[in-house]
């Protein structure tokens, strides 16, 4: 975690390490793998126009909340983790941006992946295939008997706030890689690169 003297690089998963910035296909897979999968899959498909509208209006957080609720509500957290680890890596691998991966893969310090998806959906892929040391993303709200209630924990803060645990003694990360130089966590990085 924080306090390491190793130089750190943070890279955005959606739209940078992965070519596509839209996590919708991955939520479709998660919905299909969940209990009542066909119903969840159909509901998410019916919600697609609303999700596109929310994304085009800049309401990315609202779109994410709708996808999380539809695909994951009522599923045990352990099942979400198992499905994410078994199903998503193959589809993530097909979408890897090799140019961005080349920059990220050559980094010799600590590698951190930043995701807009729930952390549990991206963590296994990022650590096993992208060789990330850490994955920063929002956590699922889990309640009674380990069941995901269908929303992300509130009050965790932005990606930039979550990344602060990895900053060096100068209060900054050494490098950042994102699809846009205005990505919120890039303000914490000494050197920034857009993919």
UniProtKB/TrEMBL annotation:
Give the enzyme's EC designation.
2.3.1.15
Pfam families per UniProt: HAD_RAM2_N
Task: Give me the segments passing through the membrane.
Answer: 27-51
- Tagged with keyword Transmembrane helix: yes
Q: Name its cellular compartments.
A: Membrane
Highest taxon of the lineage: Eukaryota
The UniProt similarity line reads:
Belongs to the GPAT/DAPAT family.
Q: What is this protein called?
A: Glycerol-3-phosphate acyltransferase 5
């Amino acid at each position: 975690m924080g306090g390491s003297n190793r130089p750190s690089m943070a890279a955005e998963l959606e739209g940078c390490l992965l070519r596509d910035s839209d996590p919708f296909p991955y939520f479709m897979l998660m919905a299909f793998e969940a209990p009542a999968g066909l119903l969840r899959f159909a509901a998410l498909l019916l919600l697609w126009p609303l999700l596109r509208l929310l994304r085009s209006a800049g309401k990315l957080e609202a779109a994410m909340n709708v996808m999380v609720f539809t695909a994951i509500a009522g599923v045990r957290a352990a099942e979400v983790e198992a499905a994410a680890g078994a199903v998503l890596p193959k589809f993530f691998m097909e979408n890897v941006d090799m140019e961005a991966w080349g920059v990220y893969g050559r980094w010799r310090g600590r590698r951190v992946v930043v995701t807009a998806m729930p952390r549990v959906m991206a963590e296994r892929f990022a650590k096993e295939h992208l060789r990330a040391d850490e994955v920063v993303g929002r956590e699922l709200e889990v309640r009674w008997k380990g069941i995901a209630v269908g929303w992300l924990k509130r009050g965790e803060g932005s990606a930039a706030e979550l990344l602060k645990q990895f900053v060096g003694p100068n209060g900054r990360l050494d490098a950042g890689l994102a699809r846009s130089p205005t990505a919120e966590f890039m303000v914490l990085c000494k050197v920034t690169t857009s993919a």
